[in-house]
Amino acid sequence: MITDPKQHWENVYATKSETDVSWFQDSATPSLELIALTGARPGNAIIDVGGGAARLVDGLLQAGFEDLTVLDLSRSALDAARHRLGRKGQGVHWIDADATQWRPERHYDVWHDRAAFHFLTESLDQNAYIESLKQALTIGGHLILGTFALDGPEKCSGLPVARHDAESLSTLLGPGFSLIDHRRHEHQTPWGSTQRFQFSTFRRAS
C-alpha cells in the first residue's frame, strides 16, 4: 500500500523530465489503435485516467477529438502536458485527482488507462476505482485498460504493481463489462529495456 501516492507522484514528476521515466512514449500508438477499434468519433468524450504528462492527448487532438479529459494524481504531470501543448491544449479538461476517490460530474464514452490501475494492489482501492469508472462510463461505452502482463515487471517507479491478464480484469469488473479485445504489447523504455504490457478493451453492457 502506498502511504501517500500523491506525494510520491509529485516527487517523480518534480525530479524527472518527461523522457526520463520508464513509461515514456514518443507516440501513444497502441492506445490510439485501441480507441479507433472502439469506433470512437471526434464528438465522443474520452477520459485518460492516469494520463499525466503522456502524449495520448496530443495524438487525440491531432486526430480531431475535442472533448478530452486527462485525470492524474500529479498536478506537476498535468502542468507538463499543458505546457507542452500550449494553445492546442486549452480545450482539454485537466483534473488533479485520485481516481479511487474522484466522483465524476459527467459521463464519458471512452475511459482509457495505461499503467495506472496496476498500481492498485489492494482490493479496496481496486473496487473504489471501479466504482468511479461505473459512475463515469456510459452504457455502451468502452474501457481500455493497459497493465503490466502476468510476466511483466513486478515493480515500477519503486512501487509494487498488480499484474493482470484479460481474465483477471474481467473478474474484477464483473458481468457488466464484455471483453471485446485483448492483446500484448512490448514497450521499449527510453533506456532500451522491455516491459510486457497487457491491453484489454471492454464494452460496458450494463
Automatic annotation (TrEMBL):
CDD domains: AdoMet_MTases. Residues 46-141 form the Methyltransferase domain. The keyword Methyltransferase applies. The keyword Nucleus does not apply. SUPFAM superfamilies: S-adenosyl-L-methionine-dependent methyltransferases. GO terms for biological process: methylation. GO terms for molecular function: methyltransferase activity. It comes from the Bacteria. Keywords: Methyltransferase, Transferase. This is Class I SAM-dependent methyltransferase. The lineage of its organism: Bacteria, Pseudomonadati, Pseudomonadota, Alphaproteobacteria, Hyphomicrobiales.
